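ok so i was messing around last nite and threw this chain in just to see what happens. nothing serious, just curious
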Amino acid sequence: MTYYSNNLATLDFDFEAFPVAAIALEPSNIERAIQISNAIPNESQQWQTYLNALALFGFAQWLEERGSDIPLESANSTVLQPEYANVFQAVANLTVGSFKLCLIATGSLTDEQVIIPQTVINLPEFAAHFYVLIEVKEEFEQVIIRGFLRRDRLDSQCHAVNLQPNSDWTYSVPLAWFDNDPDRLLLYLRCLEPAGILLPEIASDRIAALSTVQGELETLLPLLQSTETALWQVLNWQQGTAVLTNPELVEWVYRLQIKAISNEASETQNELRNYLSDLLNLLTQRTVNVARWLQDQIDELAQGLSWVLMPPSFVPATVSMRSTPSLEAVLPAAEFEEIIRQLAHTGMEIPTAARGAYQDIGLADIQARLYALTWPFLSPENTPEWTLLLVLGPAPGSALPHGIRLRVSDQSGVLVQRTLNRNSMDNYLYVLIAGRWDEKFLATITLPNGTTLTLPPFAFRP
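result:
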């Protein structure tokens, strides 16, 4: 007969009891968290992203079970956007009801300090009404809501003790500051008005701030190509703020590291690094509003750059078969009209309502003339869009050198680049692009010797 002792206290069980408040994670959520973390090129950030994703899914499950009447919107949260998950240690921009929440995921609570990223405290774009501390027990496939911290309490406590950030852009916040009753969080989410917890206002001078560090970022950001390098190891906080508050730069860093781990050709990586200058100019420079041309107007910036508006009659309604006249014998409008006639032979359709302007350009010892033509249209989805046609040709009495390039970029990358080849029959370069009304285009002219001229971005602002 086998004898079992009734004295359980004498037995030494080697296991960790499951807390009553633990939330069991669904297998599908664990698989999704793995997929999310696998999309992160920064090796030091992959594990934290995995914990962040589990924390989000566990919190969503907890809210569904305890407060199904409170809506949760996670699509804009940083962990579900790979470019942000690549640089964020927390789950910011999570909307629950009318509140913004930030989830602080940790693998274990081994001391009395909670590490909170400086980004979610000092940058208004990512600040939250509540900071929720979530312990992720990934080995047991469960999470535990350990507590939460109101933003107003965080502010007052930080001010009281003059809390300073660590060198790695984090704060070490005492665990005692957190309220350890998750039910109280549910009560706040149901009954409190968001105005009861004030959030810092987003600064209105973000572009000006970016301009002050533009040259520094052009040099430093390529150093982030290493997937083992974090932003704080390369940038100071002012520079980091400029990057993190401009989504296009966050995306650029992500693409740079993705190309590094995919072993893409160094030429492709160099193109991305070279594009950084275009991107910074698109973000910081004033724009030429070509939509004004449609009303026979030209804005102050274009006037200052010596753009000259051409009359509406220069766009031909039909294609002429006559030969090209001498460029020295025609006015700019007539010259461009003939160029358009030639382009029409290639099948390019230009409405008679299109309007254009030209600018004479001196670059090194080269004299050139740049024409720009624009018109609006509706996409097949009935989205308002606009077209920009750029034509780079020689000034009267001169010629463009072989090897001269015309490049056009937008905030997603280099769109097109044309080069005047030695065997080309043309004596001009043209680029035709289209985009939404909120998109801008940046044109850059590069001589064979590397001399470059970047024009202010073109925009369409009716």
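not much to say yet. Residues 1-19, 317-330 have pLDDT under 50 and may be disordered.
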